[in-house]
Design goal:
alpha+beta; 16 helices; 476 residues
Length: 476
């Protein structure tokens, strides 16, 4: 519905509470009847839906899209953007593409700075690395690939085992030199296996302590809100973790999933059985308890927001390193924070997805190409190669296939593009609709109250509102 509202609002002028769409090639019943005819589809908005549309347009009409590399135009006058949220970013993309509103952009490359090189050869390498990132940002993916290949950043392996072996050796070599690194892969199955292999390599190198302690971690299961209402999607040992206050449970509390009813979930904790209404499903995670061996030197990726024992924030997606584990179950981190004994939403953090690597900056990035072609696209390529400041290594079994895969577009098709595949990017937004949007934005601007207005605010609430002619000569 969100994408449909964006599509309708950005096309034709408002006529009362109805919007009209031109739908060439089909009649009202959806049957094709040729290119010559032009059917008009009318969509009637209820008051509640119109109020929702007003809120949507006002809240996202002015926004900032962040690109780290230089956003130069490519041949099609478009940009390669980083990953957006899986569903939430589609409405913003529809507004960016069809509303005629101009977003603000960050244009300067900061990560790949040649001045950071310690030698002439390293500075030259970083300069070529930055040029490859810029090519990817401009939409020249093949040229970006060739740039990295020229500096020896792409390694072609004979099989999957050799690819994993070289990847682990490369990661261990970088970390032994006290340099930061992250491995990026595309599927969770590959990530789990790579994480275990890297941990074994680090144990042999003495980077991770030999003595392990086993804890129970909560591995998140990605379910939609509709799936969370269906008991069939819950494993037998499912644990529900609350990220916010939800009915009978406070933020951070968790319990065993018991069953679903027509209106809520039943969750059992150590002391009682509580309810979580379906309207709060976005405030919780469904997890699977898994045994995880941890030791000093291990790296973790946090999978939820929380607070450490000393009140410092723990951020979802953050990479942290373990300093020690105490008998009480607390995990002490190298940066001084301590994970509470009830915070167990984390996974191993040596390898992450390209989504998880966003906002992260490391000295070296290692990319493990997946054998699944559909897992690679232009957005994943840009995000992956731009994480490092000093270098990148890409391990693949087929250079040619990888070069073809990175040219695949990563955006899903919007509803408006299905209805009008040949619709122009409306810098042709009808004046009535543009005026309507501008009025919404203006009406919702934050009004800064002056001190003298604050002092007399009680008058506005206690004194009845009078017309101008009634208040003449009266003192309030």
């Amino acid at each position: 519905m969100l994408r449909c509202c964006s599509a309708i609002a950005s096309q034709h002028k408002l006529r009362s509470n109805s919007y009209f769409l031109n739908y060439p090639g089909k009649n009202a019943s959806g049957e094709f009847f040729g290119e010559r005819s032009d059917c008009r589809l009318a969509v009637q908005f209820s008051p509640n839906l119109k109020k929702f549309l007003n809120t949507l347009l006002a809240s996202v009409a002015v926004y900032l899209l962040e690109w780290y590399p230089h956003p130069e135009l490519n041949r099609n006058n478009t940009f390669t953007r980083q990953h957006g949220a899986v569903e939430a970013s589609d409405a913003l993309r529809a507004i960016e593409k069809y509303s005629g509103l101009e977003p603000a952009r960050l244009t300067r490359i900061r990560r790949q700075n040649p001045k950071m090189g310690k030698s002439k050869s390293e500075r030259k390498r970083i300069k070529h690395y930055r040029a490859a990132v810029r090519k990817a940002q401009m939409g020249q993916y093949a040229a970006s690939f060739d740039r990295l290949d020229q500096i020896g950043a792409i390694v072609e392996c004979r099989n999957l085992d050799e690819q994993r072996e070289w990847l682990v050796a490369g990661y261990v070599e970088v970390t032994k030199g006290n340099k930061t690194a992250v491995v990026v892969s595309q599927t969770w199955g590959e990530i789990h296996e790579i994480n275990e292999r890297i941990r074994l390599g680090l144990k042999k190198a003495g980077v991770v302590a030999k003595e392990d302690k086993t804890i129970i971690a909560h591995e998140r299961i990605d379910l939609t809100e509709a799936q969370k209402q269906d008991q069939r999607f819950y494993p037998g040992n499912a644990v529900v973790v609350c990220n916010r206050d939800t009915g009978d449970f406070k933020k951070g509390q968790h319990g065993k999933f018991l069953k679903t009813t027509a209106t809520h979930l039943l969750i059992g904790s150590e002391r009682r059985v509580g309810k979580i209404a379906f309207k709060h499903l976005d405030c919780l995670n469904v997890c699977r308890p898994v045994e995880m061996a941890l030791a000093a030197g291990d790296r973790l990726q946090l999978k939820a927001n929380a607070e450490s024992c000393d009140g410092k924030p723990l951020v979802n997606g953050e990479l942290v390193t373990i300093k020690k584990l105490d008998p009480a179950g607390h995990i002490h981190l190298r940066d001084g924070r301590i994970l509470p004994d009830d915070f167990r939403q984390f996974v191993r953090g040596y390898a992450v997805t390209s989504y998880g690597s966003q906002r992260k900056t490391v000295e070296h990035v290692l990319f493990s190409d997946s054998a699944i072609k559909a897992a690679t696209n232009n957005q994943q390529w840009l995000v992956t190669i731009s994480r490092g400041t000093r270098g990148i290594k890409i391990f693949t079994q087929d250079k040619q296939r990888l070069q073809e895969s990175i040219c695949r577009l990563g955006d899903r098709e919007l509803a408006i593009e299905l209805v009008q595949p040949f619709a122009s990017k409306t810098n042709d937004l009808p004046p009535p609709m543009r005026k309507y949007i501008e009025g919404l934005i203006q009406s919702r601007r934050l009004v800064v109250t002056k001190p003298n207005e604050v002092q007399s605010a009680w008058k506005q609430t206690l004194v009845p509102k009078m017309r101008a002619q009634q208040s003449r000569g009266q003192r309030i």
